[in-house]
């Protein structure tokens, strides 16, 4: 490191070669971001103000909307700035802060989806005990723990990233400060950070995904034992929205982080574009099109 210059800022390239499409892309991003914020705020307002919608499942939906506002606000405005200026410079600490909120929102969302699957498990598999177990007070308690766990684990990784030094380059071919390209620019050993990320991903992400699959295996088993087709349809309708959210969210994460590595691509540029498109879908598009459907009062259990 003594012979290298320490980097204090990065250059985010975003999507290059937009040329004549830049105005269209800019207006599209502004429309998507505005619609995402308005739509999720409306969900929060409805869940908070309408008595008929005050139940644990809709409360978790409101928390999920708040999480989507966080991740969209963390990524979309900076992406708009990159499109306007054909790139954006960001200080190392600012990049680390963006990565911190990105990681926290992803972890919080995983926790909330797990809590929602548990809520549906109780509602369908143990309907007689649902109201006594899943009270609003218990739902508040679970939601608080989701946010505490998400921010705490992301803070641990954030502290380790602040200890890194960057001197091998300053260009990040992405539209936000993602972890992988950031670690690639470090000129000191990043094994500690990679181990921490692997542990968090395994213990939190995969375990919670397994818990969701387990909950829905019991839910499916209970639905199939309902004698009438109307009863099966009604039971499935109470969890269909959440199931679609889980499939879309985890599906995009699996494709993004388990996709082939650079070495498997004939052209490294293809890999980078593929990664950026999946990240754009996961951080900008999904928060807009998540299939929320508030559960009416008569379907609480």
From TrEMBL:
The chain crosses the membrane at residues 23-47, 59-84, 96-118, 138-161, 199-220, 241-259. It holds the Pfam family 7tm_4. It is found in: Cell membrane. The keyword Transit peptide does not apply. It is a multi-pass membrane protein. It comes from the Eukaryota. InterPro entries: GPCR_Rhodpsn, GPCR_Rhodpsn_7TM, Olfact_rcpt, Olfactory_GPCR1. Residues 39-290 form the G-protein coupled receptors family 1 profile domain. Keywords: Cell membrane, Disulfide bond, G-protein coupled receptor, Glycoprotein, Membrane, Olfaction, Receptor, Sensory transduction, Transducer, Transmembrane, Transmembrane helix. Belongs to the G-protein coupled receptor 1 family. This is Olfactory receptor. The lineage of its organism: Eukaryota, Metazoa, Chordata, Craniata, Vertebrata.
């Amino acid at each position: 490191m003594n012979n290298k210059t320490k980097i204090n800022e990065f250059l985010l390239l975003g999507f290059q070669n937009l040329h004549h499409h830049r105005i269209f892309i800019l207006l599209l991003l502004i429309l998507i971001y505005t619609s995402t914020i308005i739509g999720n705020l409306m969900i929060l307002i409805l869940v908070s103000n309408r008595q008929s919608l005050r139940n644990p499942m809709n409360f978790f939906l409101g928390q999920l909307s708040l999480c989507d506002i966080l991740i969209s606000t963390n990524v979309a405005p900076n992406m708009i700035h990159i499109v306007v200026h054909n790139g954006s410079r960001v200080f190392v600490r600012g990049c680390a802060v963006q990565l911190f909120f990105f990681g926290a929102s992803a972890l919080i969302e995983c926790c909330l989806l797990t809590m929602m699957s548990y809520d549906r498990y109780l509602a369908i598999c143990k309907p007689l005990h649902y109201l006594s177990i899943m009270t609003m007070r218990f739902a508040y308690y679970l939601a608080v723990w989701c946010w505490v766990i998400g921010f705490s684990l992301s803070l641990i990784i954030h502290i380790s990233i602040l200890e890194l030094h960057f001197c091998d380059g300053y260009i990040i071919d992405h539209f936000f400060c993602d972890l992988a390209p950031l670690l690639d620019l470090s000129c000191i050993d990043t094994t500690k950070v990679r181990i921490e990320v692997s542990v968090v991903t395994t213990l939190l992400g995969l375990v919670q995904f397994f818990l969701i699959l387990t909950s829905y295996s019991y839910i499916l088993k209970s639905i199939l034992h309902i004698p009438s087709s109307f009863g099966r349809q009604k039971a499935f309708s109470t969890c269909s929205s959440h199931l679609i959210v889980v499939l879309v969210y985890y599906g995009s994460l699996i494709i993004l982080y388990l996709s082939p590595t650079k070495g498997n691509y004939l052209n490294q540029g293809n890999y980078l574009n593929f990664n950026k498109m999946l990240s754009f879908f996961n951080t900008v598009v999904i928060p807009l099109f998540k299939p929320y459907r508030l559960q009416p009062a008569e379907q609480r259990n």
